[in-house]
Amino acid sequence: MRAFYPSDRGDTRGSLTRSRPVPLFRTITWILIVCCASFLSFYLGIWTGLQAASNSGGGEKKMSNLSNLSEAELNKKVDALVKQKLKVQLEELCKKLPSAPPLDAPGNSPKIKKGESSLFTKSISHFARGLARVSKDDLMQTFDFGVPPNANSEGLDALILYNKKEALPSDANVARAVRYEDPTKPLAFLSATTATENCDTMNVVLMDNPGNTRQCFALIGGQYESYYVQRWMRRPDNFGKLDPKMPLKLTSRAWTAAGKQEFFPPKQSQVNSHQEKLRTYLNELDNIKSRLKQVIEKMNAMTVVVLTCNHGQSELLINFACSARARGLDLKNVLVFPTDQETKELAEGMGLATFYEEKLMETVPKRGAGIYGDHIFVSVMFAKVLCVQLVNELGHDLLFQDVDVVWYKDPLEYFHDKSLPEFDMYFQDDGSRQERYAPYSANTGFYYVRSNDRTRHLFRHLIYSSDLISAWSSHQQVLIQLLAENNSVMGLSVKIFPKQMEEFPGGAQFHRQKKVMKKIMSGDSKAYIFHMSWTQNKDNKLKFFEQMGEWYVNKQCIGKETHEITDKDVTENKNGVLVEHCCSVEPQITCHYRDKPSKIPCKDSPTIDTNGRPFW
Questions:
Q1: Hey, is 371 helix, strand or coil?
Q2: 391-403: per-residue pLDDT in tens?
């Protein structure tokens, strides 16, 4: 291979040179050089003459006084004489030179020929030929990018950069404005339709400034196209927060300005554990798919509602079933993937269809997670990946939900509505805007999936990457990054229902939107479901459901196994032998915290949040 040397490039500026008027500063520079040389010669001449006169011994009378001076005094007098001479000549020179106009004066800009732009010059014309402003709301309503819109965007604009002249709007006057040919006029403001009418393709970059840093964007034209964004930050080499004194370095997009690193490779022990699970999964896959297919065929369901649960969370599963039955909702589409035999019996005792694969689920602990993100929580996350991937692989559309969900109406009615915009996947908005959840903030405890080649590839990708779930302690974080990757690479279309819409509320609304929750408490909401997310543990979920009036489980069924509740065989009654024992006809309302949403005023209860304000 031929080595590349700087000399190979030649003068790369030659192709970009243009004839221009000689800049004024060059003329002044040469004049000053000539003057300085003259004054230096003048100074040396005087100094040489004086030295000669002082050494002659019998010099002329007019130099006799100077010869009596010391060398230091003589030099001082010569310097003063030179400075005086220089000052006089510079004043005369400045009077003859024309004064330079200020930088912002109209006449200071180079003359632009008709049809040319002072902003989009030839040097950037290979990737930038025009720029337009478009209302952010108008753009995101015209093109549904699927991401959750941020609130309070009224009056904010987006920018559209045109790569080719042919992409500019058709109207000649609009095109000139977009080209910024008249710098006295503001940047063109257009509708999203007009701005994009001649765009054959459009690359969309979503921008924000997490950490409120002094952020810059570099747009480099004439390069091999990239659909990824490199992130550079001033930081230490291995760990630490943003440091303005350090040089810019290539940085993970999840290395926050505060120094927290959200994305990192899994440890070898996590990789080994994951590979062992994958080995079992792949060895048993054909048999599993054959058995699962038979179960789903018996359900005769157009769409499968998928849940998974261990015994530690079983009372939440029972509450889901009891609350739905209290509202007369049909659960024939529901398929539970229990992680242990005890939960399988409880689910069947509630009249729910189940699919249990012991070999795959044997590593999942039976007890409930202590807190969000602990090792039990992470273990259950693999079960969430597995059950969705298997149903999706068999070609069925599905609705996945956590067990801490209650239904007000059958949510499948919403997803089966023909007027619903067509996307591959739909997610509840989590509400969190942490960098690790960008760009979707998808809540992975309630989402709908259409089975097609794109979604099947996504979930195969996810199950093969599940060692990251152990490393990052988050199923949500891993899935969101794969959503972004497959959106870019495969064209996977993803829709996040904005948290402002009423249909699918959850923890964000529970803790932060009092008006939304009061509508739910009064029965005036359009909500289909409520998802008790954003909670520390199961105990909080139960308490919050109790005071919301959404708890339907009798005490004798909480934390119990089937044989502790009844002696009957759970297969005796397909409608559920445990329903009469575990389900309350009316909700069991109990106050716990006055600063959280409640069906009735809980004014005498304590607060759970620091400085929490009463809900009622």
A1: coil
A2: 999 999 999 999 9
Mean pLDDT in residue range 316-344: 97
Cα(522)–Cα(408) distance, integer angstroms: 13
Q: Using alpha carbons only, what angle is made at residue 403 by residues 399 and 404, rounded to the nearest 5 degrees?
A: 115
Dist CA 333 CA 329 (whole Å): 11
What's the mean pLDDT in 120-127? Answer: 92
* Three-class SS state of 400: strand
Strand order in the sheet with 334-338: 353-354, 334-338, 303-309, 397-401, 442-449, 425-429, 494-497
Q: Which residues contact 82 (CB under 8 A, 6 or more apart)?
A: 39, 42, 43, 46
Residues 6+ apart with CB under 8 A from 133: 157, 158, 159, 160, 187, 188, 189, 190
Neighbours of 48 (CB within 10 A): 10
Question: How far is it, in rounded angstroms, from Cα 497 to Cα 495?
Answer: 6
Q: Using the structure block, give the residue that is written with the tokens 């002696």.
A: 567
Q: What is the pLDDT of residue 445?
A: 96
Which tens digits make up the pLDDT trace of 429-454? 999 999 999 999 999 999 999 999 99
Residue given tokens 């997310």 in the structure block: 533
Residue 295 has pLDDT above 80, yes or no: yes
Which residue matches tokens 């690479």?
489
Mean of the per-residue pLDDT values of the chain: 86
Classify residue 201 by its DSSP letter: -
pLDDT band at residue 81 using 50, 70 and 90 as cut-offs: confident
Tokens describing residue 233: 């930050």
User: If you average pLDDT over residues 312-327, what whole number do you get?
Assistant: 97
Q: How far apart are CA 326 and CA 328, in angstroms?
A: 6
**H or E stretch covering 82:** helix 71-96
One-character DSSP codes across 346-363: HHHHTT-EE---HHHHTT
Structure tokens that stand for 249 in this block? 């370095």
Contact predicate 533/564, CB 8 Å:
no
Tell whether omega for the bond before 597 is within 30 degrees of 0, i.e. cis.
no
Judge contact between 428 and 447, C-beta under 8 A: yes
Residue 21 has pLDDT above 90, yes or no: no
The answer to whether the beta carbons of residues 394 and 297 sit under 8 Å apart is no
What percent helix, strand, coil does the chain show, rounded to 5? Answer: 40, 10, 50
Question: How many C-beta atoms lie closer than 10 Å to residue 490's C-beta?
Answer: 15
Residue type, 363: T
Retrieve residue 446's tokens: 């309630």
Measured between alpha carbons, how far is 163 from 367 in angstroms, rounded to an integer?
58
Phi and psi for 470 in degrees, rounded to 5?
A: -65, -40
pLDDT for 106? 52
| Backbone region of residue 212 per phi and psi (left: phi > 0; alpha: psi in -120 to 50; beta: other values) | left
